[in-house]
Design a protein that fits this description.
- The chain has one domain.
- Helices cover 30% and strands 22% of the residues.
- The chain is globular, with a radius of gyration of 18 Å.
Amino acid sequence: MIGPVEYMVVGFPGNQFNGEIAPALANLIESGTIRLLDLVFITKDAEGDVVVIEVDEHGDLAAFAELDGEVGGFIGHDDIEHAAAGLEPNSSAAVLIWEDTWATEFAQALRDSGGVVIEGARVPHDLVEDALAAIDAAS
């Protein structure tokens, strides 16, 4: 059984990356909430050249080397090009793919029942905050 698999490209304008997401990601992995399938860091210099950065090549990425799991093989050259196309010069990004292990049972039940996902999306955080504030104000 496998749960839903998601990806995310997280940008760091001006290369302002400090590694603070590593402990939060480690907590999700250790709690069994997700299984990290792949993780790639890229950077775009002032001339627009893109470089893939290994976690052991950059001090701020060292914490990611400690993450549990077999990581690699999902993110390919085309994925990196797609992520890099959205980066401004002098920026970096983390490209992550993970399995939502928390949803494995539901996903299997959905498949077993013949159901198919017709649409799904992540609702942006600011929209959720605005909606919750409006609900609170109305109560």
